């Protein structure tokens, strides 16, 4: 019995395999993230701005979309000032309607992020579907889709978004323009940005469909639909997700540009671009904060998301590692 105990004690115990969390923390992605201070700051800024926009109804001292909460008597209150009339404290000042600029930025960020995310998802889904069809089927489908993409690439995306936005609004009655502005913005930006996703997916699909695992799946009689969505699609999504991350910053800027030009969100539901357009009218009259703070918020949001997208593109590209 003692010999068996000694033998059991001397038998080496296999080490416990690391969990998924430990494996992720030891991965190259986390290691690269820890060694790049710029990426860390960009991540923190992005998370803070996303959280602030998400919880805006609980953080903002005022609902800028509710006319009952606006204090016209507090108009043009400077930043870090308490109003002499109502006693309200304005961290970033107020605008011409007595609207708290800090609250307007939080609510405006929600609209900018909503339009950006929805437009990227729409463009990603459309571009991925067309790219899969063009790369897998080939023939006249590939030629038609790619020629349309080539024609669209000859125009700047913002001009395409303006054109699509104007055409869609032309078919709608004027009374509905403000109600469906956010939907029209999403469609316009999405239709102007699908080309980059389609081209990336088409190229990756043309490579994947000639690999041995696809040929083996064809030999055993796997339907084309299952072959596309179960085997090829998961292997071509990596570059698409990277493009989508960078495309989010571009979609936010596109929404802000359209709103700044006066063809985006109305003044009653301001996005960051609308706030910048409104603040431009007071740039030389002394109320500088109405333009400055929304502009800084848009710059920080777009820059941080863009930096994360650039880092993600580099870390997921084996040729750059």
TrEMBL record:
UniProt topology in membrane: Multi-pass membrane protein
Domain of life where this protein originates: Bacteria
BP GO annotations: transmembrane transport
Pfam families according to UniProt: BPD_transp_1, OppC_N
Family matches, as SUPFAM superfamilies: MetI-like
Keyword Transport carried by entry: yes
Transmembrane segments: 38-60, 111-136, 148-168, 180-201, 240-268, 288-312
PROSITE patterns linked: ABC_TM1
Ranges where the ABC transmembrane type-1 domain occurs: 109-309
Subcellular location: Cell membrane
Protein family membership: Belongs to the binding-protein-dependent transport system permease family.
Name of the protein in its database record: Glutathione transport system permease protein GsiD
Protein's organism: Halomonas chromatireducens
Lineage summary: Bacteria, Pseudomonadati, Pseudomonadota, Gammaproteobacteria, Oceanospirillales
Gene: gsiD
């Amino acid at each position: 019995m003692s010999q068996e105990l000694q033998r059991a004690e001397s038998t080496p115990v296999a080490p416990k395999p690391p969990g998924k969390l430990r494996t992720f923390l030891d991965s190259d992605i986390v290691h690269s993230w820890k060694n790049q201070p710029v990426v860390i700051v960009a991540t923190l800024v992005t998370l803070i701005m996303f959280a602030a926009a998400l919880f805006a109804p609980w953080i903002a001292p005022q609902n800028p979309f509710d006319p009952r909460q606006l204090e016209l008597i507090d108009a043009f209150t400077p930043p870090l000032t308490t109003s002499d009339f109502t006693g309200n404290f304005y961290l970033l000042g107020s605008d011409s309607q007595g609207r708290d600029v800090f609250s307007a930025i939080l609510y405006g960020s929600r609209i900018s992020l909503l339009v950006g995310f929805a437009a990227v998802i729409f463009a990603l889904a459309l571009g991925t579907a067309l790219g899969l069809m063009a790369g897998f089927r080939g023939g006249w489908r590939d030629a038609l889709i790619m020629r349309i993409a080539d024609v669209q690439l000859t125009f700047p995306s913002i001009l395409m978004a303006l054109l699509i936005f104007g055409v869609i609004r032309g078919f709608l009655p004027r009374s509905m323009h403000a109600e469906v502005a956010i939907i029209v913005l999403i469609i316009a930006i999405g239709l102007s940005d699908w080309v980059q996703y389609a081209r990336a997916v088409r190229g990756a699909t043309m490579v994947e469909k000639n690999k041995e695992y696809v040929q083996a799946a064809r030999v055993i009689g796997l339907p084309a639909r299952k072959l596309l969505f179960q085997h090829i699609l998961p292997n071509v999504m990596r570059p698409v997700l990277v493009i989508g991350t960078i495309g989010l910053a571009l979609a936010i800027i596109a929404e802000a540009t359209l709103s700044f030009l006066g063809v985006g969100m109305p003044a009653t539901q301001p996005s960051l671009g609308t706030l910048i357009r409104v603040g431009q009218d007071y740039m030389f009259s002394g109320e500088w904060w109405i333009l400055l703070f929304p502009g800084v918020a848009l710059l920080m949001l777009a820059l941080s998301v863009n930096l994360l997208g650039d880092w993600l593109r580099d870390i997921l590209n084996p040729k750059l590692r």
